[in-house]
Design a protein that fits this description.
By secondary structure, the protein is an alpha+beta fold. The chain has 2 domains: 43 residues, no CATH class; 63 residues. 30% of the residues lie in helices and 20% in strands. The protein has 4 helices and 4 strands. The strands form 2 sheets. The protein has a two-stranded antiparallel sheet with strand order 1-2. A two-stranded antiparallel sheet has the order 3-4. The longest helix has 10 residues. The radius of gyration is 22 Å and the shape is rod-shaped. Bound molecules: zinc ion. Zinc ion binds next to loops.
Length: 110
């Protein structure tokens, strides 16, 4: 589980906050310091960049087979959809035991 670490500004006592408690986009939160009983006010911003910008669809074998084998998309096209490099897609194709085509040379043997 992802944890956000902070420190009490008065006594430096560390506190932890499970990211599951947080809302996407951010808000102001208050937490009582266990050590000095002061309220710690803090604001956080949670970015969805890691999940929305790069789309980890390539970890799904079914999806990869559909795109690469059925829809005949190239590694580069899939890479663009996922927001990663074509190298990453190649690695995952190998990982999923999907036979890779050479770039620009669609497989012709049946
Ligand atoms: Zn404190």
């Amino acid at each position: 589980m992802s944890i956000l670490n902070g420190r009490c500004p008065s006594c430096e006592h560390p506190f932890e906050l499970a990211l599951i408690e947080l809302k996407v986009g951010g808000e102001k939160k208050t937490r009582l310091c266990e050590k000095c009983d002061q309220y710690i006010k803090f604001e956080y911003k949670l970015h969805m960049a890691s999940t929305s910008k790069s789309n980890r669809l390539y970890v799904k074998e079914d999806w990869m087979r559909k795109k690469y084998l059925e829809e005949k998309k190239t590694m580069q096209e899939i890479a663009d959809i996922c927001g990663v490099s074509s190298m990453t897609i190649r690695n995952w194709l190998v990982n999923h035991n999907i036979e890779t085509r050479d770039r620009g040379h669609p497989k012709r043997d049946l």
